[in-house]
Amino acid sequence: MIELLRILGVALILLGLFFMIASSLGLIRLPDIYTRAHASGKCDALGQALMLFGFVLYADFGPETVKLVLIIVMLYILTPTATHAIVRAAYIHGKKPWKRGEERE
Amino acid sequence: MTGIFMISGVVLIFTTFLCLYRVVVGPGASNRLLAVNVIGTKTIVLLVIIGFIYERPVFLDIALAYAMINFIATLAMAKYYEQGCIC
């Protein structure tokens, strides 16, 4: 049972790592600030939640579990708030959304 | 299992360097802020990985504190970018 949980935890960590890599590639490749915000949300919400939940399953039950769940819940609420504030500031400063055929920023 | 953690940590550092490209190049302050926010999140996960590799639970407390500091810093910078002052 413990071994099964550990294997599941490592699988979740690798899945979260895939989302981290995908969000970094999106941050480089996508054309403007709004689509890049979409890519960064993949890392902020999904990538860290999957990786840290993998560590929750990997570790034995104890104080570490509580701290990891606290980190997951805090990041899940806080980082999309920060992303929203950044994108709102960019919108107020008059950034236009990218349309097909235009040049990339 | 420590080898898998080590490899995932190295891959995470590599993706952090990919984000650093956007910080250096990216046009305007908003792209740079977005990339800095992502780098902060990856740093938190990296701290947890380091704590599990060396089996020191203290790193989880550091990660918890760093999450709060990262949020406050990003929010303050976004507000400064939006309004021109922190008020």
Automatic annotation (TrEMBL), chain B:
It comes from Methanoculleus formosensis. This is Cation:proton antiporter. The chain crosses the membrane at residues 6-24, 33-54, 60-81. It is found in: Cell membrane. It holds the Pfam family MrpF_PhaF. GO terms for molecular function: sodium:proton antiporter activity. GO terms for cellular component: plasma membrane. Its main location: membrane. PANTHER family: NA(+)/H(+) ANTIPORTER SUBUNIT F1 (PTHR34702), NA(+)_H(+) ANTIPORTER SUBUNIT F (PTHR34702:SF1). It is a multi-pass membrane protein. It comes from the Archaea. Keywords: Cell membrane, Membrane, Transmembrane, Transmembrane helix, Transport. InterPro entries: MrpF/PhaF-like (IPR007208).
